[in-house]
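Class, study these two lines:
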Amino acid sequence: MTRIKNNGISKKKRKRKISKMKGWVGGHSKLFRTGNQQLMKARHYAFYDRKKKKNLNKTLWITRINGGLKYYLTINEKYNIFVSFLRKTKTYVNKKLLSEINVRDSKSFSHLSKPIMKSTGINL
């Protein structure tokens, strides 16, 4: 019985990985070991930064909503108080939607916010 080597499969794996390393500087694009290390690192950063991007977007939305509350309603209420008022009045709107309403159509944001704040007892 002849000995079977994985030469063809190994070459195929290496070729696939090296094709993803194109455009990198130095040995990272030419040498397999250093390129493979760089590829693993790049994948790790890609995963980490996808999570980080979501967190940054959430903070941006909260900042926009908070700014809209201060500017259009002329109150110094914080975002978390506003959200608790939304929950008390059973108005379910997510952060992204509130932020987009504030940016694109600020008058409708103030019209949306005023009845909620009045129903909870805050004088505007």
Observations:
- The longest helix spans residues 32-72.
